[in-house]
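Quick one:
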Amino acid sequence: MSKRPQWVLAGFVAVVVLLALIAVVVRGGQRAKDFDVGTPEGTVQSFLRDVFDDDLEQAATYLDPDGACTLEDLPEVFYQDAGRVVLIDTATTNSGARVEVDVVYPTEPLDTDAYAERQIYRLVSTSDGWVMQGGSC
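Output:
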């Protein structure tokens, strides 16, 4: 029996593995999309980045002063172990918006298994931009 088919198969497997590794490295090196802070998505993204960075005073600047959430509520937001946030949907009206995200928590170091918690943020448009009326605070 010829060894050639085995070498062809081994070469094919090696190429597939190499391409998979390249895809993982390229995807892993990509930075999350930055949304414009003047959009509902950008407001939520900036708020969550500040919460993740434990800069609660800055995070509070995205809250509606007339809303239900305040700076004092923010320590109750438990995102410190979140691996990432995935934008699910945005719905915008003339005066408001609803941004839905999944906060993904890895359960293993390589993130091969994870669970997500759905969060919905309600925003209102002001002359200074978008502010969050309520949601996950």
